[in-house]
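for the writeup, i need someone to sanity check this before i put it in the appendix. the sequnce is what the collaborator sent (i think, or maybe the updated version? ugh). structure was predicted straight from it, no edits. if anything looks off just tell me and ill rerun, i have time this weekend
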Amino acid sequence: MRNCVVGTLVAVVAALGLACTTVSPVVNTASIGDIDFSQPMREGESCQWIVLGFIGPFGTASVVDSARNGDISRVKIVDYSSAWYVVVTKRCVITYGAGPLGEGEDFGVRTPMIPEPSTALLLAAGLLGLAVVGRRRS
């Protein structure tokens, strides 16, 4: 019974560890002093869902899709949001700007997903724990 509990705990830790992801930080900075915040801006959002850190991604979290969703042709501000729901991660890119999106416009910017080093370590620890528990049984 104890081996079953230990094996289950190790599997749960490994599964939760797989859900740890991070996104590379934005390296370009821009001055927002020239932006007139008193004028209304359109908002577009593009989201991506990842299950257990490796199933998916479902959807896209890109500036291009976000601008298209908000019917924006001149992007002024790009924001990022992320939420983690135990086994599901939601990443969103939010763009603010003006103007309808013209035909053939493509901004060509994507946000890559980079797994954290701890993800691989937790997966390896979980698999090792399962192997030890399985070996003790036989």
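Residues 38-114 form one domain. The first strand starts at residue 21 and ends at 23.
thx in advance!!
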